[in-house]
Design a protein that fits this description.
Chain lengths: 113, 119
Amino acid sequence: KNQVEQSPQSLIILEGKNCTLQCNYTVSPFSNLRWYKQDTGRGPVSLTIMTFSENTKSNGRYTATLDADTKQSSLHITASQLSDSASYICVVSVVNRDDKIIFGKGTRLHILP
Amino acid sequence: DAGVIQSPRHEVTEMGQEVTLRCKPISGHDYLFWYRQTMMRGLELLIYFNNNVPIDDSGMPEDRFSAKMPNASFSTLKIQPSEPRDSAVYFCASSLSRGLAGLSTDTQYFGPGTRLTVL
């Protein structure tokens, strides 16, 4: 069964600290993986997109990594800011005759001043 | 561009009533997606359109849900009759392409969502 599991469910860190969010998937055959940021009360916003041939992608202080062999991805946030408080959602696309987009349930990140 | 526009932003209705959610995608985008988000299940894809034609509605929970896209700039999601378990945030998103090739054009742009409460 195609699944996307994210950990931790929630995370609290102090402003200025780094953190890493995890995404494990069992999706096959794999097409691409996205990380979205969703602020409270808003729709998700795309942070990074990676195909199976890419193993890292950066967007400012956000760096996503992908290991297609172990089917793991991580999102690393450097020097966190209060505005990073949000949910981060991992999304994996399947390529087969039933093309699907599988969403993780997200990690809720709280940045404390 | 104003981005994806959804209305209403909030809707409170009673069980059994008909609910219609509206979406205006970004001009020029060929794909439109409807999602539902709850705490328990996260984001779920309900249906998506390509050039106004429904392509995959396998995520639509049951016959009470229907979606239409009469033209390139407007789509509706209708629930009739509504039930308390339909309470959720409903998002509309649009993109230039389907979102399976990992290209920047695949990026889906989400609207602000409609928070639906069915009493």
